[in-house]
Design a protein that fits this description.
It contains 5 helices and no strands. With 79 residues, the protein is mainly alpha-helical. It has a single domain, classed as 434 Repressor (Amino-terminal Domain) (Orthogonal Bundle). The chain is globular, with a radius of gyration of 11 Å. One of its GO terms (molecular function) is DNA-binding transcription factor activity. InterPro entries: Cro/C1-type_HTH, Lambda_DNA-bd_dom_sf, TransReg_Diox_bact_type. This is Helix-turn-helix transcriptional regulator.
Length: 79
């Protein structure tokens, strides 16, 4: 899996850990209700401001989400 796909997985993992629905996370992050699902399924690219909003809503940092994505991606450094 590439890093962009892995970021969606990292967000999904963090959301599940907090027991939030995609819709609730989107609401907390002040994003469109479909945005989180699209990101988690790698159907859209995540804007930096949205990454920060999602991280804030999850009570984590963008750096932690990106670090988890890097771990999940392993050696796949592609976009």
């Amino acid at each position: 899996m590439n890093r962009v796909e892995a970021l969606g997985v990292a967000i999904k993992e963090a959301r599940a850990k907090k027991q939030l629905s995609q819709e609730k996370l989107a609401e907390l992050a002040k994003l469109h209700r479909n945005s989180v699902g699209l990101v988690e399924r790698n159907l859209t690219k995540l804007a930096v401001d949205s990454l920060f909003a999602i991280a804030d809503a999850l009570g984590t940092t963008a750096a932690e989400l990106v670090a988890r994505a890097e771990t999940l991606a392993g050696d796949d450094r592609s976009l």
